[in-house]
Amino acid sequence: MPALLTLPENQPFNADLHTPLYPDHYREYAPHPLLENRVRSYWSMEELHTQQTEQHRFFPERLVRLCFYQGEAYLPDLNAGSRLEPLPQVYMLGFQKEPVRFISRGLTRVVGVELFPWAARELMHPGENIQNVFFKPIHVALRELSLLVLDLIQRNDIIGALEALEDWLLRRLTLREIDDHAGIQAALSLYQMRGQLKISELADQQGVSVRHLERQFQEVVGITPKWLSRIIRFEEAHNRLWANPQINLTELAFELGYADQAHFCREFRSLTHITPSQFSRDVRNRLRNMDPQLQ
């Protein structure tokens, strides 16, 4: 059975859907040791949405999520103006280049797994671009698992759903040795250093040329080192602002390795379509809706 993890105080989960409104109803679970460096964690969440909390955004993320969803939620139909279409009950997302808005209503239950990109790519159609992973058709191998997991969620057997998911991943993923793969090891270094390493530094660490590393990185990760570094730093900024919307933006920009606050604001806005200051105000407003005593 996946072991429950103890989360740091005020540590959020990225993307508005996965940043829990009610932390007591959010759990993370450690993966099986054989899945280390393929699965970061499993997670489950339950929320009851009102009109004040039904509006959400999916923001770009540093890893890929495979999610199993029970509830009522809608996405805008980009081909039909203001019309809404149902959120798929099973979907993958993570490296999309811009935010996507959606609406959740009433009781929501979600079970998911956070995958490193080289593991996520094993679950995608051959040749599919991982940056377009958002809501792409799910691989045929997931269909039987989806029916089982969604049934267990419907019966509120969250642990059973997580066990079924992990058992499937242990059988499905290629549990090959990755210690000697320069591209994967460079990506793991970027994750560990919060995106603050240059491609030349990564190449030196792996003892290969920059060109060779870029080729191996693209082959297994599916994106460039520069893009992964960019999105990791963005998610770090997002999480810090969610945990403390009063944080000094200049200090945060310096801590995360941006050239200056203006550079930080440009990068943040390019991925969210809002500035860090606007995002901080949104967080404060959302917290007030959750707790009237904060008003």
UniProtKB/TrEMBL annotation:
Q: Which SUPFAM superfamilies match?
A: Homeodomain-like
What InterPro entries does the record point to? AraC_XylS_family_regulators (IPR050204), DUF6597 (IPR046532), Homeodomain-like_sf (IPR009057), HTH_AraC (IPR018060), HTH_AraC-typ_CS (IPR018062)
* UniProt keyword annotation of Repeat present: no
Q: Where is the HTH araC/xylS-type domain?
A: 182-282
What Pfam families would the database entry show? DUF6597, HTH_18
Keyword vocabulary terms for this entry: DNA-binding, Transcription, Transcription regulation
SMART domains attached to this UniProt entry:
HTH_ARAC
Gene Ontology MF term list = DNA-binding transcription factor activity; sequence-specific DNA binding
Q: Does the keyword Manganese apply?
A: no
> What name is this protein filed under?
AraC family transcriptional regulator
State the species of origin. Deinococcus cellulosilyticus (strain DSM 18568 / NBRC 106333 / KACC 11606 / 5516J-15)
